[in-house]
Amino acid sequence: MDRRIQIGGRRYRPFPGFLVLAVLFLVLFAGGFVVVKAGVGKAGGKPQTEKLTAGQPYVTIQTPDVQHQGPSVGSQDTHDQPQSPSVGAQHPNIRPQGTFGGSRYVVTRSSLVRLLGGNGKEKIVLLTFDDAPRGESTRKILDVLERHRAPALFFVNGTYAEKRPELLREIARRGHGIGNHTWSHARLTRIPCEQVREEIVRLNDFVERETGIRPAFFRPPYGKMSPCAYSVLEEEGMVLLQWTWSSEDWRRKSAKSIVQSVVSHVHPGATLLFHDLSLTARALPEILEELERQGYRFVLPDEPLPEDFQGVP
Ligand SMILES: [Zn+2]
């Protein structure tokens, strides 16, 4: 049987069906591959040091907060993502600042530490420790920080601080900042507004009573803000501070893996998230040594901006 077809006076042998399918498959496969490659180029690779431009919302892969055994932590959904720090009604004129090499720096809405007028490439890093003071490792962490003259911001919970007020005072006395991480590590999206206020204000009152300093920074448990939490922050004149990289120390099995996670993801202006844990205390010396070797310095924004400050970096 002659299977050729006739087009414009010439006769052609039609492509066998499998050949058509194979070509189709190749085209689709190659197309998909290009799309995947493009995605990696945009979202993966080394976005953290290359995308720093002033004012640009800064998005990194953020990871869940620790799932610790503290009170009122009922669920196991550790895979929640913190909401974007740039979402919500953050007070526009409050950006606690500090000084670095004679220049002022601020914490931006996206949790980056930036020099005012800088190019975003200054090797400054903000160290933060959540769920403090748990007690078993707090002093070890304080000792390591002291050896490196590295100030840090400790996000405390009332349930821990109430049991160990002397540790809370010691954190402040040794030159570190104290932030508010709620009284009982509550998930703010699941409790009524009045309770959100209580979670935040009660802890502020306690910290102020014990240390003389009212916390300026707030970090919600699991990174989860609620509309009510935003208004309480405004009432309290506080600043939301999430993080740009989580060490995920709470789920790691070795100090080495904490070191590797941080060292391979640090970038100028990073806010690093750790927890007040023994394994973290063991990893910390190597992390600080390596970051110092790379030329990083540790900063602590602890000065309020002037009332008339208008620039929002
Ligand atoms: Zn926490």
TrEMBL record:
GO biological process: carbohydrate metabolic process
Record keyword Metal-binding present: yes
Coiled coil ranges: none
InterPro entries the record matches: Glyco_hydro/deAcase_b/a-brl, NODB_dom, Polysacc_deacetylase_ArnD
Positions of region (Disordered): 64-102
Record's keyword terms, sorted: Hydrolase, Metal-binding
Pfam families reported for this sequence: Polysacc_deac_1
Domain (NodB homology) ranges: 123-299
CDD domains documented for this protein: CE4_NodB_like_6s_7s
GO CC annotation terms, alphabetical: membrane
Cross-referenced Gene3D superfamilies: Glycoside hydrolase/deacetylase
Ranges of compositional bias, category Polar residues: 64-87
MF terms in GO: hydrolase activity, acting on carbon-nitrogen (but not peptide) bonds; metal ion binding
Listed name of the protein: Peptidoglycan/xylan/chitin deacetylase (PgdA/CDA1 family)
Source organism per UniProt: Brockia lithotrophica
